[in-house]
Each structure stands twice: as C-alpha cells, then as structure tokens.
Automatic annotation (TrEMBL):
CDD domains found in the cross-reference section: SDR_c (cd05233)
Gene3D superfamilies listed in its UniProt record: NAD(P)-binding Rossmann-like Domain
GO MF term list: oxidoreductase activity
Database matches in Pfam families: adh_short
Keyword terms: Oxidoreductase
Protein family (similarity comment): Belongs to the short-chain dehydrogenases/reductases (SDR) family.
Source species of the chain: Flammeovirga yaeyamensis
Superkingdom of source: Bacteria
Protein name per its UniProtKB record: SDR family NAD(P)-dependent oxidoreductase
Amino acid sequence: MIVVTGGSKGIGRAIVEKFAKDGVDVAVCARNLESLQELKDQLSQYAEIHIFQADVSKKEECQKFIEEVKSLQKPIDILVNNAGVFVPGAIYEEEEGAFEMMMQTNMYSTYYITRGFVHQMMENKKGHIFNIASVASFMAYTNGGSYAISKHAMLGFSKCLREEMKPHNIKVTSVMPGATFTASWAGVDLPEDRFMKSLDIADLVYSAYNLSNSACVEDIIVRPQLGDI
C-alpha cells in the first residue's frame, strides 16, 4: 500500500493516480473530502482507495490519520509526504504566523507522519519514503521566505532519515521539483506549457520506486525545460 498526504490535487493526486492504476492500494488524506471522494470514485476500478479527511498542519490530525491508516492492517510499502503550502513573501515582511504555518504544514507533518509509519517498515525490513520538497530546498530566491526555510528543513530531514534507515533496508528519496503546474501557481500570467506537469513528478517517483533493491535514488531535481520561473 502507498500512503500519500495532500493527495487530492496537484503532484499528490498524480502520484495516487499513477500507483493506483498499477494496482497498488492507496491511503490518502487531504482537507477537502469532496475532492477525495471524487478521486476514490475515479480510481476504485483499479485498486482499493482509502480516503481520510485531515489537515496535517495540526499535530492531532496527523496522529488521527496515522491511527486510521494503521487500522486498515495493511503493510505500508511507500510513504509520500507531499502535503504542503506556499505563500510568497520575504522573511522581513511576511505576515505574522506565516513561518509557523508553513513549517507546521510542510515540515512538522512530514516529521510526525514519518515517525508514525516508519516502525512498521522497519519491522518488515522494506519500504520507500518520498519527501516532496522543492528546488527551494537548496537555493534561495526572491520571495521564498519561510517556504524556502521549511523546504530546506525537509531536505535536511531526508538526509538524516536516509542514514538512519540504511540498516533497515528502507529507501529515502528527496524529490525537488521546480515550477510545476499546480494550484500554487494559480493566477500567474504564464502559459501552462512553461511549467512541468504533475504527471512528470509522479512518473519520476514511480520509476525511482521500481528500481532494484540494491539501488536508491537519493535526490531527484527536476526543472522546466526553459529553467526556473
């Protein structure tokens, strides 16, 4: 089974669709239950789709999601920490609370949910964790602000976790896309083909997962063909 956070749209949804259509059972959470139900209706012909409403910026909802997935009593082969939020702004003038909100959504949820599922993977001596970060994980850019801080933290988390999991045969991959056509870019006056597609990211995750046990893609960096926006 694959577990995906923030899977009702964008990159998360594309990953859910990619694996479900290959017959992999899915547990997915998002804030919008209606979108999750639509996803389930679309994909139930291919695999079991278990949907859970959760706002992972809140620790108690992360814990609730973890317990709900565990109650399915299915082995977790893949965890995709995808839930995230982007609000542009400079560190010195962001709205009060922007830092906390983006850290809680992007980083804290990744930490809590990984800790919730990784012990089962360790017991089974297999698993693959994908953390959906960003090119903002390793570079600074104007108006990156707290978003870039949170994504830098995600990359550091992945590196530490990867070292810890090596003896347990668990792979950890950081996925760092550039501009991808998702709701985060809504309203931007640029043609859609200037962006990557969410399916591009899903294809990379799927390919990285399907390597042999002796190989691990540690970092995936992918940008639009014409470069960053």
